[in-house]
Design goal:
CATH architecture of the largest domain: Beta Barrel
Strand content: 35-45%
Order of helices and strands: HEEEEEEEHHEEEEEEEEEEEEEEE
Number of domains: 4
CATH class of the largest domain: Mainly Beta
CATH topology of the largest domain: Elongation Factor Tu (Ef-tu), domain 3
Number of helices: 3
Largest sheet: 6 strands, antiparallel, barrel
Shape: rod-shaped
Distance between the termini: 80 Å
CATH superfamily of the largest domain: Efflux pump adaptor protein, beta barrel domain
Structural class: alpha+beta
Radius of gyration: 45 Å
């Protein structure tokens, strides 16, 4: 075979083989693309919107303060603190002993006064006996009228002296009682300045008490909202740790701050909540209760300044829907426009989806 014939034969074989290989590769690539197009872009979980009863509210913010504070002072001075029985944070009841002052000097004066009362009582008994005898001989001439009057006057003087000494004894007993520092009401000790061994003066503040452990929210609201706020309405605050506390409007201030155009609403909070005096918190005053169509906040997708949710149709395609949102409570948000009540909403992951993409639904939309 000549070289030219051999080259021609080899070229023909290569061309023939090429035509056989290329269609097989294209078929395999087409199959892979078909499999890829039929696979789901994302596995999602769907939920249906929930109709919930939510209260309309007036936004407010302010400080948590004690409902009433009681100052517990020393009523007598010049005595040393011998015992302190409570500390900041102690829960006390009315009349409970908080501290003791030295009683030695007061007890000595008390015993001295008790002796003075006993002597005055004895003097009165003698004067009364003499006066009774004088009265019996009145008109007999045994005693002159002047002597009889002296006995009677002595009796009256002894009665007055006894009353005076008894009053002084009561005063000493009061002093003794004042050496025992007691709680003036049920409540919580919020501050303590009493120090063991310190000599106090009359009027020295020893403790501060939050009466009945009641804390209130002094919330500021805009003057334009005052017409709709009144005592008895519900209120809620969200403290910094994420907990919501429910309360009730106790009082609406009759004045408006001329600088801020806001007024203070006093909201009573339940006893035993975790909020602390001095915290700043935001919340609202609850007005009328209305229905709200809500979805999880994770279902919202924010793009280009607009809010969207993704729903899944019968063909398992994700549809992007423009919605308008309203109130928010905890992890749910109100949808005011754009969403059907029976829609299957993709619960989360909408940021990874595009309109019309195929998805795999994990559940049945419940």
């Amino acid at each position: 075979m000549t070289p030219r014939i051999l080259v021609s034969t080899l070229l023909a074989a290569i061309v023939a083989c090429g035509f056989g290989v290329v269609p097989a590769a294209e078929a395999q690539q087409s199959t892979q693309q078909s499999d890829t197009s039929s696979s789901s872009a994302l596995t999602v979980r769907t939920v249906q919107p929930q109709l919930m009863q939510w209260a309309q509210s007036v936004p407010a913010s302010g400080w948590l303060k004690a409902w009433h504070e009681a100052k517990i002072d020393a009523e007598i001075g010049g005595y040393r603190i011998t015992d302190v029985l409570v500390d900041v944070g102690s829960v006390v009841t009315k009349g409970e002993v908080l501290a003791h002052l030295s009683q030695d000097a007061v007890l000595a004066d008390l015993h001295k006064q008790e002796a003075a009362v006993a002597k005055a009582a004895a003097d009165l008994a003698k004067a009364k006996t003499d006066a009774d005898r004088a009265r019996k001989v009145t008109g007999t001439g045994a005693l002159s009228e002047q002597q009889i009057n002296e006995y009677i006057i002595t009796e009256q003087t002894a009665e007055s002296s006894l009353a005076s000494e008894q009053a002084a004894l009561e005063s000493e007993k009061i002093k003794l009682d004042q050496t025992v520092i007691r709680a003036v009401d049920d409540g919580l000790i919020s501050s303590r300045s009493a120090t063991l061994g310190a000599v106090v003066s009359s009027g020295t503040e020893l403790f501060t008490l939050i009466r009945q452990q009641r804390v209130e929210w002094q919330a500021e609201v805009a003057a334009r909202d005052l017409a709709s706020v009144h005592a008895g309405l519900g209120a809620h605050i969200d403290v910094p740790n994420g907990t919501r506390i429910e309360g009730k409007v106790r009082l609406v201030s009759p004045t408006v701050d001329t600088d801020t155009g806001r007024s203070i609403i006093y909201v009573e909070l339940p006893v035993g909540h975790i909020a602390r005096v001095g915290l700043f918190a935001s919340g609202g005053i609850d007005l009328a209760t209305t229905a709200a169509l809500t979805v999880p906040e994770t279902a919202l997708v924010f793009r280009d300044g607009l809010n969207y949710v993704f729903t899944v149709d019968g063909d398992r395609k994700a549809n992007r829907i423009l919605v308008e949102v309203g109130r928010r409570q905890q992890d749910r948000v109100e949808i005011t426009f754009g969403l059907a009540a029976d829609a299957n909403v993709i619960e989360a992951g909408g940021a990874f989806l595009s309109d019309g993409v195929q998805v795999d639904v994990e559940n049945s939309g419940k």
